[in-house]
Write a structure and sequence with these properties.
Structural class: alpha+beta
InterPro entries: Ribosomal_uL6-like, Ribosomal_uL6-like_a/b-dom_sf, Ribosomal_uL6_a/b-dom, Ribosomal_uL6_bac-type, Ribosomal_uL6_CS
CATH superfamily of the largest domain: Ribosomal protein L6
GO biological process, one term: cytoplasmic translation
Shape: elongated
GO molecular function, one term: structural constituent of ribosome
Strand content: 35-45%
Number of domains: 2
Keywords: Ribonucleoprotein, Ribosomal protein, RNA-binding, rRNA-binding
Protein name: Large ribosomal subunit protein uL6
CATH architecture of the largest domain: Alpha-Beta Complex
Length: 179
Amino acid sequence: MSRIGLRPIEIPQGVEVKIDEKNFAVVKGPKGTLEQQLSKDMEIKIEENVINVVRPTDNKKHKSLHGLTRTLLSNMVEGVTKGYEKKLELVGVGYRANKQGDKLVLTLGFSHPIEMVDPEGITVEVPSQTEIFVKGINKQVVGNYAAKIRELRKPEPYKGKGVKYANEVIRRKVGKTGK
């Protein structure tokens, strides 16, 4: 039984949700518009200011799609109202981040600086040289872009150098013991 799928989604004031007969969802809000094709097996009901997702049967596939569909809709509604944000930190001597127009320029100890162009719908802020904020309305795109930045230089376990999420805890290892 999908407990997440059973929870109703409340539609806040100023958000407009449209779902056609093929389960193509369009959510408009103060921050923007999101569109996504949802599973055709699920039945999505909009009554007053509440969205309910109903599954047709109790087989395993429908149970998993039930929770997924509800979560995707909930993320869309939250994205157009509040938006999403990931904070990254650069740890290490000489590790820096700069913003040049729509490019993020990272100096991560390689022989060359790395330039990354911001994807559409994403804003990147660099308040200091060691902090990066990735913001947007689509949770998936924000998370993927933050993961791409982190992938360039993952934190290593000995000194903790690298690009890490702000709330990430790096398990440290003990180095070699000298004679």
